[in-house]
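ugh ok fine here u go
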Amino acid sequence: MAHLAPRLLLVLACIFAGVCEVHAAGDAHGAASEAAESAETKDAAPSDGNAKPEGEKTAEGEEGEAEPPPPALWPETPAVETEKQPYVLMRTLRSVQDQIAQGSTAAHEQQRKLQREIAQQVRDLPPAVWDDVRNVRAAVFFVLSGGDASILKPILSRPKTPFVDRRLVRATLAYGEGRFVDALGMIHKVDARTLDPLLGGIVALIQGTLIAKKDPKKSIAFFDDARLLAPGTLVEESALRQEILILAREGNVEQFDLLAEQYARRFPRSLFAQTFRRQFFAGVARRNFKPESEWLARTETELMRAPLSERAGLYLAIADEATKSGAVDIARFSAGKARELAPAGSRTLQRAMLYEGAALVATEDFEKGIELLNGVDLMKLTTSERQIHSSAVAVALAVGKWPVAAETLDEPPPGAVSRAESLLTEVDTLLEGVPQ
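structure:
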């Protein structure tokens, strides 16, 4: 046993040494872990210097407080019943307007009455209704549609109008009060494409309308926006009508053809279509559109798009404007077309004979002009038209009478010439007073 003692001591020493190595390794691993955790903590800490020491207050002045949330678009509890909310009332008005664009006479008569009723209802509402952004937008739409502008004053008296540009509200008030220069100065800076589509459409329409005389080309861009933002509505119909006439005056034949065809296809029964056509043909008669030959050629094309029952009246409108502007050829052609389309014995026929005869007495065909004038039933003419008739007959007789040659060059012109000039002036004056 004695000889085994050294060996046992050696084994015990080795075992002891192994245990120590294990503890050392464990201690080293623990230290490394602590170092790693410390490093991760340092990496996770912000490095941009924005970290706030504990207890330091934020910019808002409260410890750790975030920015307040934005105001709600509308309150959770409505100020009034749903059916009394302005944005709901406006849906009815929009529906009526769209019916007008489709040709409803009843809707046109209803619109003004409805606008008066809505204005009265809105004035009776509590101020809290304007906490709802939908109602503020509805009020702007209402006034731009021709409604009572006074409903905007309670809105502007409030310190803020969240989500609605106060400049737009002020511009709308100016427009509703007839202060168009002020309105243009404010509203032209508004980007309609950033607004609610239905509101943006009418804003763009008013922008184009207000700037049309000052900058026709810029107004076209506004009308384009209006058409894109409010398709199928009275807003689009109005934008199309105004843009077409501007394109005609600017001589943009290609774009005119495109939009004129679009108007005829989309709004053929609009209550404003007849007025629009009269405006266009009157412009042709006055030679407002350049080049003249292009528009004269398009007159027949545009007339074919009008209902047959309207064409005689449209030709007469052209003849009337052409006579006033001294465009004898256009007056003669248009009155002749009206005479062909007018029913026998009708007032339209009598007016057509009057204008054609009045145009012809200033030409070599004055004898035919006299014949037409003599065939007019004076009982079917208005007082002003009868005065035009008598003056035109007197002009024809004066022009057709061969003057006596003057014995000397110093003699004044024959009385017939002076009389004719006087009568022509009288005709021009009377034509200005003839109703369309």
